[in-house]
Design brief:
The protein is α+β, with helices and mostly antiparallel strands. The chain has two helices and four strands. Strands 1-2 form a two-stranded parallel sheet. A two-stranded antiparallel sheet has the order 3-4. One of its GO terms (molecular function) is oxidoreductase activity, acting on the CH-OH group of donors, NAD or NADP as acceptor.
């Protein structure tokens, strides 16, 4: 995943990844909101990563990935709060596929 180092990261790379990792899910969730409102229990699922954790950042590398993923988590939290305040029955989940696996019944469990 290039670039690794902060000094090698350009604004263009950071903005490009922000558009893909953060803005893409933002636009998709807005686009599908009318359908989600019609369902009995809608779900917005964002794929996150441990690398998005500010608390778990112990090396500081790969900021062009970490920063947009952290922003995606913040977006998910804000959207969930707005949906709750609007009394919408829509859950917002941030799932890390590296730490979530289905059990024998197909139910997702976390290894955290």
């Amino acid at each position: 995943m290039y670039p690794e180092k902060w000094l090698d990261t350009t604004a263009d790379v950071l903005i490009y990844k922000y558009h893909i990792i953060t803005v893409g899910p933002f636009l998709a969730s807005k686009r599908f909101l009318p359908s989600l409102k019609k369902s009995n229990f809608g779900k917005i699922v964002n794929i996150t990563s441990e690398w998005a954790s500010i608390a778990a950042n112990d090396c500081g590398t790969y900021i062009s990935y970490r920063v947009p993923k952290s922003a995606l988590n913040a977006l998910g939290t804000s959207v969930a709060m707005e949906l709750r305040a609007a009394k919408e029955n829509i859950a917002v989940l941030c799932v890390d596929p590296a730490t979530s696996r289905p059990n024998s019944d197909g139910v997702m469990e976390t290894s955290i």
